[in-house]
Amino acid sequence: MNVSRRNFLKGAASGAAGTALAGGVLVGGARADADAAAAATAASGQVTEPSYPFHGARQAGILTPDPAAKQPFTCVAAFDSMADSQAGLTDLMRELTGRARFLTSGGAPPDLGVGQPPSDSDVLGPSVPADGLTVTLSVGSTLFDDRYGLADSKPLNLTPMRVFPNDSLEPAWLAGDLLLQLCANHPDTIHHAIRDITKHTRGGMALRWKMEGYNSPPRPSGTSRNLLGFKDGTANPTGTTATSLIWVDDPAEPAWARGGSYQVVRLIRMLVEFWDRVSINEQENMFGRRRDSGAPLDGTSEFDTPDYAADPQGTVIPLDAHIRLANPRTKATADQRIIRRSYNYDLGVDENGNLQAGHVFIAYQQDIRRQFETIQERLVNEPLVDYVQPFGGGYFFVLPGVRDAADWYGRTLLA
Question: Is the peptide bond before 220 cis (omega within 30 degrees of 0)?
């Protein structure tokens, strides 16, 4: 190869994300790719639901009836709680519940009269459509410090996000007391929702960092592609296998936490300009899949199961290929699998003139240590690390669902 990987990385790593300025302000902010993805999704006929139920034992926005047909747009936004007491935190949770309940159901905002600021931004018109919006609320480990008397109620495995070799983490993009994951069928619905929520919770929580993402439609079919051009999430568990890997049911966990889920968010920059200079053979060997079809290198179609037992020396699928390390497909590693709900992002250009794009990795599991961290340990120093730079995110715990109109986020934790 004529391009020096390390020299390229040295330039790109001048601020790994190229985005963390004073106060967390973003450089760039391009939306052209997101708008194009919205048009392409509509043209492709990809099925999107008009609405998802808000009430239930578990929150929406983790599993959809068809995991491959998750809403095309997302926003993950981390907040610091500004509540001065547990009672204040309870009020915040009640307000968040009310806003999420309204926004995910849709309807006409109240008319407050001509002498008052309008109750709604009208970004979506005079009547708010549900537009497939889901609002998923999680809590970070910092919420369980000494501010609210919740230390004894912290989920067993909820900690600050572990720093792995090859990470380039930036404090401005890390952690948070609360995390909102918004998913919807159109980007203006996402904008409207985060704007509405921050308006109604001002004083209760302060925005720490925010990242918007989009999900590409299948091209030409099957699973969506990431910005390295490869299908992403082909091996995502589905059905009863998925549910058996997500929901916390350990009797050692606090009683309130059962039915929730551990969430990992990783903001990962992809060095796409450098990647585009790599031969297709090397790219496919790093992933272990064909770029065009998504098939494993020993198969012919995307959903073929790779046969590692027939290739013990890695002659066909290299031993350090991403799919082989991430999911060895052994009986011993079967319960380490995670449910991914990831998106692409594009922030324009960084201060060095490089494209600033990548991946919003979102994963759910029963146990971060057993699942995500064990997988990540196998991926340390894989060949792909020269082309990706994790720079932000965190570990969070998804609260159990809001069961009915009288319930609210975190009731069993705070009541």
Answer: yes
3-state secondary structure the chain: CCCCHHHHHHHHCCCCCCCCCHHHCCCCCCCHHHHHHHHHHHHHCCCCCCCCCCECCCCCCCCCCCHHHCCCEEEEEEEEECCCCHHHHHHHHHHHHHHHHHHHHCECCCCCCCCCCCCCCCCCCCCECCCCCEEEEEECHHHHCCCCCCHHHCCCCCCCCCCCCCCCCCHHHECCCEEEEEEECCHHHHHHHHHHHHHHCCCCEEEEEEEEEECCCCCCCCCCECCCCCECCCCCCCHHHHHHHHCCCCCCCCHHHCCCEEEEEEEEEECHHHHCCCCHHHHHHHHCECCCCCCECCCCCCCCCCCHHHCCCCCCCCCCCHHHHHCCCCHHHHHHCCEECCEEEEEEECCCCCEEEEEEEEEEECCCHHHHHHHHHHHCCCHHHHCEEEEEEEEEEECCCECCCCCCCCHHHHC
Cβ neighbours for 384, distance < 8 A, ≥ 6 positions apart? 286, 287, 322
| Residue entry with tokens 């590409």 | 216
- Choose among 145, 412, 56: nearest CA to 258: 412
**Residue 56, domain member (yes or no):** yes
Q: Is residue 400 part of a domain?
A: yes
Report residue 39 as tokens.
């048009």
48 located within any domain: yes
- The model's pLDDT over 328-363, given as tens digits with 9 standing for 90+, comes to 999 999 999 999 999 999 999 999 999 999 999 999
Residues of the chain with pLDDT > 90, as a percent, come to 83
pLDDT in tens, 282-305: 999 999 999 999 999 999 999 999
CA 318 to chain centre: 28
Note whether residue 186 is domain-resident: yes
Instruction: List the domain range (segments joined by +) for residue 195.
Output: 26-108+118-409
**CA gap 232, 342 in Å, rounded:** 8
Number of domains observed in the structure of the chain: 1
